[in-house]
Amino acid sequence: MTVVVPQCTARACIITPPGAAGIATIQVTGHEAMAAVQCCFHGKRALSPSSRLYHGTFHALHDDSLVDEVVVTCCEQSHSMTGESLVEIHCHGSRAVTAKIAEVLLQLGVQLMSQEDWHNCLTGYQTAIEQAALRRFLACESDLSACVLLYQMQGVLRQKLTNIRQTVASEPDVALAHMVQLIETATLGKALVTPPHIAIAGAPNVGKSTLLNLLLGRERAIVDASPGTTRDIISEPLVIQGMRFLLSDTAGIRTTDDMVEQLGVLRSQTLLTQADRVIWVCDAAIPPRPLDQPLSSSAIILVNKSDLAVNHLAAYRRIFPTSIATCALSGDGIKELEEQLLSPFQPFMPHTPAPIVFEKWQEELLANAADALRHGQKNEAMAAIEKMLL
Ligand SMILES: Nc1nc2c(ncn2[C@@H]2O[C@H](COP(=O)(O)OP(=O)(O)OP(=O)(O)O)[C@@H](O)[C@H]2O)c(=O)[nH]1
Ligand SMILES: [Mg+2]
What is the pLDDT of residues 96-116, one digit of tens each? Predict the structure, then answer.
């Protein structure tokens, strides 16, 4: 038997990742979504658009053979994230089962979409901000990112912009103050979606790899008493108080005849120009040398090996008054380092649902709106805010 839902415009997507798993979910949306799924679903009750759960079995079209035991949910248009009637088929997460269900839906005339296309065509009551928040939310890897993005998915940023829009004409100064505050949240928001890259750099043998291992809590990099041990850049994710960073250990920077070490030094120097933040490490056992001078003006300076009885901490303190004395063996001073790494983001850490700007285009449009207001151009400011709310 071949059933085709007449003029089916329904679309479907396997929204769970490919691979073996306990459960997979296939979403079907569109006017005929429910009718299409009903053609191959056998349950005690017929599907209806009432946000209900239906337990039953899914069957092939041509011979009605059993494909899987499934749970189906139906969501009516007004509650659906696609803005249209939405049916979800929750089946067992084997590749064969999901592929078969997708095949049956195709036979019914349902259009199958990739996950990327699916996200791009989420319409309904979702604005570009909420769509972006959802995309970022699905890819995020820290608790803090998840929490902040969930609020933006629920409309916290949109609501704030709507409020600002309402005050542009009547109270432009108030609107501008709110815009400036909101733009500042991009420091945190952008870092939550793209983890800041931190490079550990300095002269050879100062304890850079020991520091990397300490921060990660495991022996990731080789540590040795001979200078020039690290050659390649070693990068690992690091989470501090829910905030994710990318941390890289680098080759000690010095002039050397060793060709391989030279290549490592070159990589370190390149990374110094690309990293968002540099931790520059010096060795308290050795008096300050020219090669201890940080190659990045905004670096956090550590004077490591502070545990040694004979040390030059005072000499370093005179040259670098804000440096932190650390011991990468015991962890002394590391809390202060972590606080420094978090400090640019700390003022914007939300304690309640807070609007956070998290993508560059949002920051740019807001900056345009603020600039326009500073020049008394209310219409231009309004237009930039409207663009954000599309
Ligand atoms: N006493 C003391 N020794 C340390 C400390 N940190 C590192 N070391 C020792 O210093 C030596 C060099 O450490 P590494 O971590 O390999 O130094 P590095 O800067 O990565 O060296 P390169 O990879 O050669 O550039 C090792 O013997 C470490 O055990 C510290 O805080 N105190
Ligand atoms: Mg090293």
Answer: 999 999 999 999 999 999 988
In sequence order, which residues have a C-beta less than 8 Å from that of residue 333 and are 6 or more positions away?
Answer: 302, 306, 324, 325, 326, 327
Instruction: Give bridge partners of residue 324 from the DSSP assignment.
Output: 302
Residue 316 domain flag:
yes
Distance 328 CA to ligand 2 centre (A): 12
Pair 82, 72: CB distance under 8 Å: no
Q: Give me the count of residues in the chain.
A: 390
Together in a domain, 303 and 205: yes
Confirm or reject: Cβ of 390 under 6 Å from ligand 1. no
Residue nearest to atom 2 of ligand 1 (CA): 305
CA 330 – ligand 1 centroid, Å: 12
**Could you tell me the residue range of the domain that residue 159 belongs to?**
128-185+354-388
Q: Is ligand 1 within 6 A of the CB of residue 268?
A: no
List the residue whose alpha carbon is closest to atom 14 of ligand 1: 207
Q: What is the number of the ligand 1 atom nearest to the C-alpha of 249?
A: 20
Same domain, 104 and 144: no
pTM: 0.81
262-301: per-residue pLDDT in tens?
Answer: 999 999 999 999 999 999 999 999 999 999 999 988 999 9
CATH code (residue 327): 3.40.50.300
Compute the distance from residue 194 Cα to the ligand 2 centre, in Å.
26
Query: Same domain, yes or no, for 260 and 298?
Result: yes
